[in-house]
Amino acid sequence: MRIGQGFDVHTFGDGDFVMLGGVRVPHNRGVVAHSDGDVVIHALCDAIFGALALGDIGRHFPPTQERWRDAESRLFLHHAAQLMRERGYALGNADVTVICEAPKVGPHAQAMRECLAEVLGCDIDRVSVKATTTEHLGFTGRGEGIAAQACVLLVLA
Ligand SMILES: Nc1ccn([C@@H]2O[C@H](COP(=O)(O)O)[C@@H](O)[C@H]2O)c(=O)n1
Ligand SMILES: C[C@@]1(CO)OP(=O)(O)OP(=O)(O)OC[C@H]1O
């Protein structure tokens, strides 16, 4: 078994939606990012890369490379899942927490779980998506940005 954790932050910027767990969530801001800025998927990728001791998302998809500009983050997760399988592991479970005052994640959590499970190639009951505010404290509390943290357990396939 291998355990991994990941964390990601993006600043809010111009726009009217944020990508979260592969789902387009309407919001009065967008995010500033090289890719589509999906903090859920970025944290999940880093958790998988961490569990496999394969570095981090920036090593696999350097922000200096034009080819990743506006990229769909589900491509990153697909790659992480492929590396996991190549090394003989399957996803035991993944647990993600989104941290922001808004948008509300709850109404979209099921769609995110469905999308993540599809990209990961696993049953939906292995994937959890939760959310919390920070009670108006800190950068998420001031609505300056959005964060996500993820934990994964990888089991021998
Ligand atoms: N962006 C968010 C934040 C929170 N939720 C849901 O609200 C519950 C209460 O949040 P607190 O920070 O006040 O504990 C939380 O447990 C989530 O169910 C949400 O959907 N989206
Ligand atoms: C995802 C990558 C892709 O170039 O860029 P960003 O979208 O800026 O996201 P970040 O969470 O900063 O991770 C770094 C990069 O790998």
TrEMBL record:
<comment type="similarity">
    <text>Belongs to the IspF family.</text>
</comment>
<keyword id="KW-0456">Lyase</keyword>
<feature type="binding site">
    <location>
        <begin position="8"/>
        <end position="10"/>
    </location>
    <ligand>
        <name>4-CDP-2-C-methyl-D-erythritol 2-phosphate</name>
    </ligand>
</feature>
<dbReference type="InterPro" id="IPR036571">
    <property type="entry name" value="MECDP_synthase_sf"/>
</dbReference>
<feature type="site" description="Transition state stabilizer">
    <location>
        <position position="133"/>
    </location>
</feature>
<comment type="function">
    <text>Involved in the biosynthesis of isopentenyl diphosphate (IPP) and dimethylallyl diphosphate (DMAPP), two major building blocks of isoprenoid compounds. Catalyzes the conversion of 4-diphosphocytidyl-2-C-methyl-D-erythritol 2-phosphate (CDP-ME2P) to 2-C-methyl-D-erythritol 2,4-cyclodiphosphate (ME-CPP) with a corresponding release of cytidine 5-monophosphate (CMP).</text>
</comment>
<feature type="binding site">
    <location>
        <position position="8"/>
    </location>
    <ligand>
        <name>a divalent metal cation</name>
    </ligand>
</feature>
<keyword id="KW-0479">Metal-binding</keyword>
<dbReference type="Pfam" id="PF02542">
    <property type="entry name" value="YgbB"/>
</dbReference>
<feature type="binding site">
    <location>
        <position position="142"/>
    </location>
    <ligand>
        <name>4-CDP-2-C-methyl-D-erythritol 2-phosphate</name>
    </ligand>
</feature>
<dbReference type="GO" id="GO:0016114">
    <property type="term" value="P:terpenoid biosynthetic process"/>
</dbReference>
<feature type="binding site">
    <location>
        <position position="139"/>
    </location>
    <ligand>
        <name>4-CDP-2-C-methyl-D-erythritol 2-phosphate</name>
    </ligand>
</feature>
<feature type="binding site">
    <location>
        <begin position="56"/>
        <end position="58"/>
    </location>
    <ligand>
        <name>4-CDP-2-C-methyl-D-erythritol 2-phosphate</name>
    </ligand>
</feature>
<feature type="domain" description="2-C-methyl-D-erythritol 2,4-cyclodiphosphate synthase">
    <location>
        <begin position="1"/>
        <end position="154"/>
    </location>
</feature>
<feature type="binding site">
    <location>
        <begin position="34"/>
        <end position="35"/>
    </location>
    <ligand>
        <name>4-CDP-2-C-methyl-D-erythritol 2-phosphate</name>
    </ligand>
</feature>
<feature type="binding site">
    <location>
        <position position="10"/>
    </location>
    <ligand>
        <name>a divalent metal cation</name>
    </ligand>
</feature>
<dbReference type="GO" id="GO:0019288">
    <property type="term" value="P:isopentenyl diphosphate biosynthetic process, methylerythritol 4-phosphate pathway"/>
</dbReference>
<dbReference type="GO" id="GO:0008685">
    <property type="term" value="F:2-C-methyl-D-erythritol 2,4-cyclodiphosphate synthase activity"/>
</dbReference>
<feature type="binding site">
    <location>
        <begin position="132"/>
        <end position="135"/>
    </location>
    <ligand>
        <name>4-CDP-2-C-methyl-D-erythritol 2-phosphate</name>
    </ligand>
</feature>
<dbReference type="InterPro" id="IPR003526">
    <property type="entry name" value="MECDP_synthase"/>
</dbReference>
<feature type="site" description="Transition state stabilizer">
    <location>
        <position position="34"/>
    </location>
</feature>
<feature type="binding site">
    <location>
        <position position="42"/>
    </location>
    <ligand>
        <name>a divalent metal cation</name>
    </ligand>
</feature>
<dbReference type="InterPro" id="IPR020555">
    <property type="entry name" value="MECDP_synthase_CS"/>
</dbReference>
<protein>
    <recommendedName>
        <fullName>2-C-methyl-D-erythritol 2,4-cyclodiphosphate synthase</fullName>
        <ecNumber>4.6.1.12</ecNumber>
    </recommendedName>
</protein>
<comment type="pathway">
    <text>Isoprenoid biosynthesis; isopentenyl diphosphate biosynthesis via DXP pathway; isopentenyl diphosphate from 1-deoxy-D-xylulose 5-phosphate: step 4/6.</text>
</comment>
<keyword id="KW-0414">Isoprene biosynthesis</keyword>
<dbReference type="GO" id="GO:0046872">
    <property type="term" value="F:metal ion binding"/>
</dbReference>
<comment type="subunit">
    <text>Homotrimer.</text>
</comment>
